[in-house]
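chain below, 293 aa
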Amino acid sequence: MKKKYLKSPGHFVLPADLKISRAPVLTSIFDKALHCAEKTIVIDASNVWWISPFTACWLTALWDKIRAIGKTCKIIPPSFHDNARNQFLGLGIEQYLNPEASQTLPKRFSTFPVRKLIEPNYPLAGQVTRILTEKLRGVENFHKALHFAIREIIENAFEHGQTDHCYMCAYSVPNKQIVRLCILDTGIGIPQSMRSNRRYSQLTDDLDVVERSSEYGVSSKAEDRGIGLYLLRDVAEKNEAELTVLSGTAKIDISQKVKRTRLNTPFPGTAIKLMLKTRREFYYIDVADWEAL
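prediction:
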């Protein structure tokens, strides 16, 4: 990790463009913050100019992990960029860190503020789906397929990721016709989970394992169907959308093409990010097809 991201022992400075594309830096910060000797950890987001649902999930997960090992964590919010400050509020990060904070949120975008789920929650999955699809007309099948995919990914976090919680956040920006979603957990991760199934135990490269996990019917459990990531991949490949899966030392970006990035520091869990542009017609698996999967 470069020195510019470490202001002093225990004081980590986040990159200004805090996107999942900065995963190599963010996974390093996540790891070093959890393993440094200092009792108080400072995560400095003062220079950050843009925050996404992934950012919200990543920050709150790191906050919880640091506190879970008995340390104090202080997160410095964005202070130089109004847009990032509004997003910090609007995505519920400040409210998560300080439940006493004001709940007055900016109205510039519709949000599902970052939420920690301690069990699969179908009604919340439905709320997120409505946020993501409220501007889409005449695509009821797409709504149902997306809802099904989100539900299965949440279930996978608990069953396959072997975690007792996960994080979810989403927003819609009507004037830009963009919606974003992130589901993140800090469980055992896709590579370890997949290799527990002898069908995939020979896959030693995390990049191969994570990409394979988005294919139809691939699951760490022999009896399961493994179609949540497959449905999201289908949406990303057929539309003006982007799907990113981050787990272990692998980051896989899927749109019309697939980009593979190897991380030096593994991410302890799984993050799934989806971005959709709502200004065009969608192509997707018909409801009759995915219900038969």
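The beta strands are 6-8, 11-13, 40-44, 72-76, 110-117, 166-173, 178-185, 241-254, 258-277. The chain has a mean pLDDT of 85.
thats it, cya
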